[in-house]
Amino acid sequence: MNPLIRVIPAVLVRFFARPYVAGDTLEQALAVVQKLFRERGLLATLDLLAEDIRRPEQAQRNLDTYLRMVDAAAACGLPVEARPTLSLKPSSYTTAPLHEGGDAAGSFAAIEAIVARAAERGVELTLDMEGRHWTDFTLDALRRLHAAGHRHVGAVLQTRLHRTEADLEALPPGQRVRLVIGIYREPAEIALVDKAPMKERMLAFAERLLQRGHYVEFATHDDVYVRRFVEQVVPRAKVGTDRFEVQMLYGVPRERFLADLTRQGIRARLYVPFALGWDMAIQYLRRRLDEYPAMVWLVTKNLVERR
Fold first, then answer.
1. Residue 7: is it exposed, middle or buried by C-beta count within 10 angstroms (0-12/13-18/19+)?
2. Per-residue confidence (pLDDT) for residue 306, from 0 to 100
3. Which residues are catalytic?
C-alpha cells in the first residue's frame, strides 16, 4: 500500500470513502439494496467488512452476522431473482490468518455453516478472493463445497495473478465466476503490475469461461472494457444475457452507464459493503483509496455538487 494512504487519519478515510459503504448496520445495508432495485433496477451483493480478526468473539460475531444476512436476504421482500447475493471472505472467521502464517483454523467450518443456511433459504453466495496467501485455501474450499452439492456458491478470480489462467481451467463445471483485476498488491514475480494487461486478461478469461459453460460476473468500473465485453466477447461466445452480468462497486458514479446497460436487458449488480461499526471499515477503505485514488476527487466533487 502507498505509505501516504497508511498515514491518512482514519477520520479522513471515513469522510472521503463514506459514499462507498452502505452503513454500519445490516438494516441500513438492506435498505440500500431494496432502493437500488426498486428505483434503478440494479441487483446487489452484500458484503460485511470484517477483516483483521484478532479475538475469537470477533470471528463468532462475523459468523452470526452472516447467518442473519442469509435470513434477511431471503426475507427482504424483493422477487427471488432480485434477492441480494452475499460475498464472504475466509479470513473473517479465524484468528489464525494465512497471511500471518496461521492455519485458518475455524474458517472452513464457519463457511460450511453459512453455505448450508443459504442452501436452505435459497440465497446465493460468493466465496471472495483475498491476497495470494489465501488463493489455494479458497479454491480448495470451493471444490469441496461444489463436490458436496452446493452449486449456489460462486468463485472470484483475480486476473492480475499469473496463476489464474490455470485456476480457471480447474474450476468445477458450471461454476459462477466473478472476474476482477483484484485490489491486493502482489509482487511482480507472481502478478501483473500494470492495470491495462490485467483488463485484457479479463476479456480473454471471460470469453473462455463463457465458452466452457460458466456464468460470468464481469466486475470493473472501466466503461471501455465493459463495452468490449458486451459488444465483442459475448457475441463471439454466442451466449445470451442469461449467462453473464456486469458488476461495479456501490458509490462509484456510473449511474448513466448502468442505466444504459439495464435498458439493454443486461443484468447490472452493485457490490454493497457495510460494517458493524466504522472502525471495521477503515482497512477496506484504505485499500480502495490505494487502488482508486480518484475516489478522493470524486467524493469532493459530489459533495460540492450537492450544495
1. exposed
2. 44
3. 128, 178
- The angle subtended at Cα 268 by Cα 263 and Cα 270, nearest 5°, is 140
The residue with cell 458450471 is 174
Using the CB atoms, write b or e for 240-264: b if 16+ within 10 Å. Answer: eeeebbbbbbbbbebeeebeebeee
CATH for 152: 3.20.20.220
Domain containing residue 104: 22-274
**pLDDT for 108-137, tens place per residue?**
999 999 999 999 999 999 999 999 999 999
User: How confident is the model at residue 8, as a pLDDT?
Assistant: 64
Number of domains in the chain: 1
* Residue with grid cell 466452457, as numbered in its chain: 212
Low-confidence stretches of the chain (pLDDT < 70) are 1-17, 279-284, 286-307
pLDDT digits (tens, 9 = 90+) for 4-19: 556 566 666 666 667 7
Q: Is 288 part of any domain?
A: no
d(CA 237, CA 50): 37
Burial pattern 197-230, b for ≥16 Cβ within 10 A else e, equals ebbebbbebbbbbbeeebbbbbbbeeeebbebbb
